Amino acid sequence: MAKKLSIMDSGWLMMETRETPMHVGGLVLFDIPEDAPPDYLEGVYRYMVEVDGICRPFNQKIQSRLPLYMDATWVEDRNFDIDYHVRHSALPRPGRVRELLALVSRLHAQRLDPSRPLWESYLIEGLEGNRFALYTKMHHSMVDGVAGMYLMQSRMATRADERLPAPWDGRWDANKPPRQKGINVKAGAMEGLSNVRKATGQVVDLLRQPRDSTVKTIYRAPKTQLNRRVTGARRFAAQSWSLGRIKAAAKRHGGTVNDIFLAMCGGALRRYLLTLDSLPDEPLVAQVPVALRSADQAEEGGNAITMVQVSLGTHLYAPQDRLAEIQDSMAAVKKRLGLMQKAEIDVYTVLTNAPLSLGQITGLSGRVSPMFNLVISNVPGPKETLYFNGAEMLASYPVSLVLHGYALNITVVSYKDSLEFGVIGCRDTLPHIQRFLDYFEESLAELEA
């Protein structure tokens, strides 16, 4: 049965251009077992393609007859070709992480084929240290970043000797519970009008806040080099940090892991813009996604997130002062969301993101004042070791998207005792993106000192 896309999900399709592909992805590193045979990776590839059918949402493609996907629905692809979606690749020698990140940068810059299900997965061999990698990308209309991460990780084993079907194998559909029936239409309409009224009031109240307040909303960000037009070229950088170090810094300053993560981002952005001699006097504002679904709802597909704006305190020299501003700004966000019902938040999300979609579609983004400066995400991940067809997962790095006017994205995913940072940007708009990895470390060291 065809499933109509929500307004938010259709928006990602409407915004897509050659310069702004709208997919999110993940780069996962695995350790080849010590007793693996010489053809081990060929066996892994066969495991990925020799499947018993294809499950949702991997077998769904877009069907639309009106322009701008205004009537877009998900339908099953009756001519699904697994060899198109799952690909086997290899790194050039010497197979360093540097070559791996360069390959992912190129793969992530390429658009997905809109006539097929909107995902691809690459098995990448030749990585030094007896390792291999798996890079998977999915369109944002198919899943949000949190749901995509949950979906892939929930289909990995927790023991080396456990064998589960490939994440897209049709056998996963057999284990899904039946869908719940819809709500009463009349009651839903009345409640919807009330939610629109309340959510509009929240937006108006936010826009009335003083510009120099730590309470941020859209259009309270200075225009910087991050907020220019982008090309289709991408540069991806990734690195892991000890979760223990970050927890210790959080305890020392009476904050949370997320506070320290945002402070690392604020410090790194301050350093980066100083090297370009373009640090604004006003603080940068981050658009921070907040998940509205639980891990067991990831298979439902679509997007279930809202967006909030947080000050990064980049105008402040002292790291403690930047952290305090971030904490104040985040506390105000949590207080406001706590006063809203889930349905109100859904309407609020549509209202605050509509200008973003319109800016991308009309070509105004990157030419007018930005709604915010960049997107920064923190995605909670698994706390136990995971395995993919017997291979231990070593690290999992998020690969997100950039837009016209928003040329940089920083996302972090937790895994066991690490935080895995993924930084992606337009390589033509922002030079030397890889320097952010050094700036993150310097910013964390400041808070530890």
Walk me through the structure.
The protein has 449 residues and is α+β, with helices and mostly antiparallel strands. A hairpin with a 3-residue loop joins strand 6 (119-127) and strand 7. Mean pLDDT is 88; it is low at 178-190 and 293-298. The chain has two domains: 3-173, Chloramphenicol Acetyltransferase, CATH 3.30.559; 196-381 and 401-448, Nonribosomal peptide synthetase, condensation domain (Chloramphenicol Acetyltransferase). The chain has helices at 7-15, 40-49, 82-85, 97-109, 145-153, 185-207, 243-252, 257-275, 319-338, 342-362, 436-448, and strands at 3-4, 23-31, 60-63, 73-76, 86-90, 119-127, 131-139, 234-242, 285-291, 305-311, 374-379, 387-388, 391-399, 408-415, 418-426. The longest helix is centred in the middle third of the chain and has 23 residues, at 185-207. It has eleven helices and 15 strands. The strands form three sheets. The protein has a six-stranded mixed beta sheet, with helices on both faces. A six-stranded mixed beta sheet has the order 8-15-14-11-9-10, with helices on both faces. The protein has a three-stranded antiparallel beta sheet with strand order 1-4-3, with no helix packed on it. Its EC number is 2.3.1.20.
